[in-house]
UniProtKB/TrEMBL annotation:
The lineage of its organism: Bacteria, Bacillati, Actinomycetota, Actinomycetes, Propionibacteriales. The chain crosses the membrane at residues 23-45, 51-73, 94-119, 125-146, 158-185, 191-215. This is Glycerophosphoryl diester phosphodiesterase membrane domain-containing protein. It comes from the Bacteria. The keyword Hydrolase does not apply.
Length: 234
């Protein structure tokens, strides 16, 4: 029997190309707004206070983008974008707190696992890779999302890990190519531009893979594995 994730990278790439303008505009808007706010804070408040607040803004932007991209992917699954950029962000807004808490908790646990023994961190990363789609699409609570993600991944762990590894390698190659292309820019602005451009190009593809993977694994589980009653759980 084929894995539920067979061909998910091809499907994600096809959707990326078909809806590139919509998805990239969403990602670019979030990254540019965050970058401008961070630069203003650093300039007005100095390196220490401004830098700390800029980090907070960066984290908030990352959570907004994660939730919004999941909503955007759900929206374009039927072949068209029905929601505007503002409507997409608005639809994701109720889940930002849960996404932020779950992302911070999972990031800390995975980071510790990678630092200590590597393999436990990779295992946890695989089991919890669907927490954001679960929160945004099922309305799951923060801590329920961990169990729900684990239940969806169970039985398909190697395929999920292989998919994540492929995504990592593809994004690494894209980052290397981008850095080479940006060598023509002055060093002082190269990092700034690289962060915005790479994030804009990569984040939508990662969201596509994870969200389409979520839908495939949910279908493989019959849509009943501890499923939460949420706005998109039908």
């Amino acid at each position: 029997m084929n894995s539920p994730l067979a061909g998910v990278l091809r499907e994600a790439w096809a959707m990326y190309r078909a809806h590139a303008r919509h998805l990239l505009t969403l990602a670019l808007a979030v990254y540019v707004v965050a970058a401008v706010v961070e630069a203003v804070l650093a300039a007005l408040l100095g390196a220490v206070v401004g830098g700390f607040l800029a980090l907070v803004v960066s984290l908030i932007a990352a959570f907004v983008l994660q939730a919004a991209l999941v909503k955007a992917v759900e929206d374009v699954r039927d072949g068209r974008a029905d929601l505007s950029l503002g409507e997409t962000v608005g639809a994701a807004r109720p889940y930002l707190g849960q996404v932020a808490i779950a992302s911070i908790v999972s990031g800390l646990v995975i980071g510790v696992g990678l630092l200590l023994l590597i393999i436990p961190g990779l295992v946890v990363l695989t089991l919890w890779c669907l927490i954001v789609p679960v929160i945004v699409l099922e309305g799951a609570s923060v801590f329920d999302s961990f169990g729900r993600s684990r239940a969806l991944v169970r039985g398909h762990g190697l395929q999920v890990f292989g998919t994540l590894a492929c995504v990592f390698l593809l994004t690494l190659v894209a980052q290397i190519v981008l850095n080479v292309l940006l060598l023509v820019l002055p060093a002082e602005i190269r990092g700034f531009v690289s962060g915005i451009v790479s994030g804009t190009l990569v984040a939508p593809f990662v969201a596509l893979v994870l969200t389409m993977g979520y839908f495939r694994l949910r279908a493989a589980a019959g849509g009943t594995v501890g499923e939460q009653a949420g706005p998109a759980a039908s």
